[in-house]
């Protein structure tokens, strides 16, 4: 079979960009933590590249995209990628190799559990995290991927999620909040971000990779691909500057970390809507993203929830906000494969979007909390106060990021 070489090349690039986001997340999180926990938080991201790939190859892809069991999950007909040929195309309408789609979706699965780790930074044992990651993918990520993107019940109801507001950010963000409640606060004085340049490098990589995350989700090159690409940058840019302005007014100083955090909030919030709204709407979404996520972090601080790296406030709240805004601003005139939001008369679409993101958020929260509870019965989840004071990089891994 002769594949569409242009679309195939584009998806190879997009897949590589999404893969690059996981190391970018490692740098972003690594700069935000104290010196004694840099390697642990970075390793939690990098290890997902290996573990999730193995899980995706064995059962993950099949559970997400093969068959259907009650509209909730796939089956194991394609376990170990059984029956997949190098000559298989994704579909008659989208003539790219099926293998590229498998790899592309795998990169989404890789980064999603890694997002959660920022919430429990400097507190969780590596063995417990590995068990949690595997169980969470099986019980949370794979079912919602199938329900939204694999033809499951939410897709049948008309739920749309262009690149992962529900599947990635809402589920990971609410799992992060559950982990904060279960694991509890860090002991002693919280260390400030130890390397703002490292945060900036991570943000740059994430921003760069997000073009593959969003534009690549069209799975081919067309007008929607270009729209999603530009909307990604517009939302991130507006969000970064609005966050900078809010924090400048609040603290009296323009903060670099605030600028970077705002950009990530904008990226997370535009994700579900990137290919379904116009450029002006993307700018509005970026502005709303910063306002809402900034307020969410303020609430977290007021409630004294120790979400160390603001995973819930940025990714969780951002993803949820983006889905709701898609339900409001979605426009079939922009993308015929989309749906009209509330302002265009799409009351039903708005209701199913809000219902889906509430369901995903609640499910991810309670399942994640339950998993941590059960794992703690098998092996301790949290490091003790002495180990935390000594530095979990040294205690858990016998390695140190800095020798000075």
Which secondary structure elements does this structure contain, and how are they paired or packed?
Elements: H1 5-32, H2 38-65, H3 98-116, H4 126-149, H5 153-156, H6 165-183, H7 196-215, H8 223-251, H9 256-270, H10 279-303, H11 311-329, H12 347-378, H13 385-390, H14 392-397
Helix pairs in contact: 1-2, 1-3, 1-7, 2-3, 2-4, 3-4, 3-6, 4-6, 4-12, 6-11, 6-12, 7-8, 7-9, 8-9, 8-10, 9-10, 9-11, 10-11, 11-12
Q: How does this structure look, described?
A:
The chain is mainly α. The protein has one domain (5-381): Ammonium transporter AmtB like domains (Ammonium transporter fold, Orthogonal Bundle), CATH 1.10.3430.10. Helix 2 runs parallel beside helix 4 and helix 9 packs across helix 10. It has helices at 5-32, 38-65, 98-116, 126-149, 153-156, 165-183, 196-215, 223-251, 256-270, 279-303, 311-329, 347-378, 385-390, 392-397.
Find the structural class using helix and strand composition.
mainly alpha
CATH-derived architecture: Orthogonal Bundle
Rounded mean pLDDT score: 96
Helicity range: 55-70%
- Overall morphology: globular
Number of strands: 0
Radius of gyration, whole Å: 20 Å
Count of separate DSSP helical elements: 14
């Amino acid at each position: 079979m002769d594949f569409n070489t242009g679309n195939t090349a584009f998806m190879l690039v997009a897949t590589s960009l999404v893969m690059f986001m996981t190391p970018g997340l490692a740098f972003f999180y690594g700069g935000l933590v104290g010196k004694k926990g840099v390697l642990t938080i970075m390793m939690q991201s990098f290890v997902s590249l290996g573990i999730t790939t193995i899980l995706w190859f064995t059962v993950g892809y099949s559970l997400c995209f093969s068959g259907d069991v009650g509209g909730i999950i796939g089956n194991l007909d394609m376990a170990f990628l059984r029956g997949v040929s190098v000559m298989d195309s994704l579909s008659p309408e989208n003539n790219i190799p099926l293998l590229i789609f498998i790899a592309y979706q795998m990169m989404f699965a890789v980064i999603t559990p890694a997002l959660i780790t920022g919430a429990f930074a400097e507190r969780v044992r590596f063995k417990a995290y590995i068990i949690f990651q595997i169980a969470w993918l099986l019980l949370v990520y794979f079912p919602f991927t199938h329900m939204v993107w694999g033809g499951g019940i939410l897709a049948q109801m008309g739920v749309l999620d262009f690149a992962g507001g529900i599947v990635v950010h809402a589920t990971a963000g609410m799992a992060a909040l559950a982990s904060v409640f279960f694991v509890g606060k860090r002991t002693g004085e919280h260390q400030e971000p130890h390397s703002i340049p490292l945060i900036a490098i991570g943000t740059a990589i994430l921003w760069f990779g997000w073009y593959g995350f969003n534009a690549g989700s069209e799975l081919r090159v067309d007008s929607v691909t270009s729209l999603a690409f530009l909307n990604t940058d517009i939302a991130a840019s507006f969000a970064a500057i609005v966050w900078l302005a809010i924090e400048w007014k609040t603290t009296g100083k323009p903060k670099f970390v605030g600028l970077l955090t705002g950009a990530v909030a904008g990226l997370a919030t535009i994700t579900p809507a990137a290919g379904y709204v116009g450029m002006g709407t993307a700018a509005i979404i970026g502005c709303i993203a910063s306002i809402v996520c900034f307020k969410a972090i303020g609430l977290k601080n007021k409630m004294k929830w120790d979400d160390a790296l603001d995973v819930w406030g940025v990714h969780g709240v951002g993803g949820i906000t983006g889905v709701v805004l898609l339900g409001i601003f979605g426009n079939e005139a922009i993308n015929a494969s989309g749906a009209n939001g509330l302002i265009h008369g799409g009351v039903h679409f708005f209701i199913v979007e809000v219902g889906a993101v509430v369901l995903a958020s609640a499910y991810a929260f309670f399942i994640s909390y339950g998993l941590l509870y059960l794992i703690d019965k098998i092996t301790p989840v949290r490091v003790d106060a002495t180990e935390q004071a000594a530095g979990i990089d040294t205690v858990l891994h016998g390695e140190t990021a800095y020798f000075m």
